[in-house]
């Protein structure tokens, strides 16, 4: 039995010495010190020994087991240290290598257009007003001369939460709320940028969510010529000094008279091309003189005050300015598209 234990010790220590990784070392530990290992078998067979041999062999078995355990632990620390050194060597950083350039982001093209429009109108004395995107029916329709039975409501297929609560279909409710805050006293001179929502099928020119910027000027003796002058100044500021505008009769429930506003085509200079469909003009926004009933519902005396309002789609402005052919490019977050609009 004594010779058996000595042979097991020498055999185990030899395998510990040549173990090349922690897994191989653990295999040695289990093979010799586990419950099914040979040393455990020796201890279980001690009952067959004489009373004099039993304590001697038991002490020797414990000494062999402790010797193997100590060498396994020492070898394990050695292998772990070697593994750490190897990892550090593989992960070392060469501080002399050139750094990788960090690419900064840029403002989204729609945000850039909103900021440009705001800058143009701030220079004309307008301020910026905002309002809720979840709106009540009164401000979205009724306060804008669109009672519940008005057929023009069909022009704007809406997202309703209840009969009285919906996602706003335009930013005109902000105009109505702003006029109410003035309590019938002018002047009111604001632009209202923001998101709007309509039940529409998404395609190259339509989206169920888009952005608008609407403007309002209410004061004494405001005329249609004032509207044309303001919009002409905006067109030159946004599209270029050589651009002209024209007004065409139209219809909007909250303005009377109402007009569609075209800007001369920048691609052909008004001569006619594929962009302007050979007309020389491109439609950019709708406008008109504020309907007297809209003024009165917001607390203004329509015999004393008059005003004009206008509204434009931000995506349309961006598509015209940058010659973009699909509105969906603005919402797909394609870095190749967005990188073209980095500001210098």
Automatic annotation (TrEMBL):
Chief subcellular location: cytoplasm
Gene Ontology MF, one: tRNA binding
Enzyme Commission (EC) number? 6.1.1.20
| Cell compartment(s), UniProt | Cytoplasm
Q: Does the keyword Magnesium apply?
A: yes
Name the UniProt key words of this record, in alphabetical order. Answer: Aminoacyl-tRNA synthetase, ATP-binding, Coiled coil, Cytoplasm, Ligase, Magnesium, Metal-binding, Nucleotide-binding, Protein biosynthesis
* Positions bound to Mg(2+): 256
Give every Aminoacyl-transfer RNA synthetases class-II family profile domain span.
110-320
Coiled-coil positions: 65-94
Enumerate the Gene Ontology biological process terms. Answer: phenylalanyl-tRNA aminoacylation
Q: Name one GO cellular component term.
A: cytoplasm
Cofactor section: Mg(2+)
Reactions the enzyme catalyzes: tRNA(Phe) + L-phenylalanine + ATP = L-phenylalanyl-tRNA(Phe) + AMP + diphosphate + H(+)
- Which HAMAP family does this entry report, sorted A to Z? Phe_tRNA_synth_alpha1 (MF_00281)
- Which family would the database say this protein is a member of? Belongs to the class-II aminoacyl-tRNA synthetase family. Phe-tRNA synthetase alpha subunit type 1 subfamily.
* Record text on subunit structure and interactions: Tetramer of two alpha and two beta subunits.
Q: What is this protein called?
A: Phenylalanine--tRNA ligase alpha subunit
Q: What is the lineage of its organism?
A: Bacteria, Bacillati, Bacillota, Bacilli, Bacillales
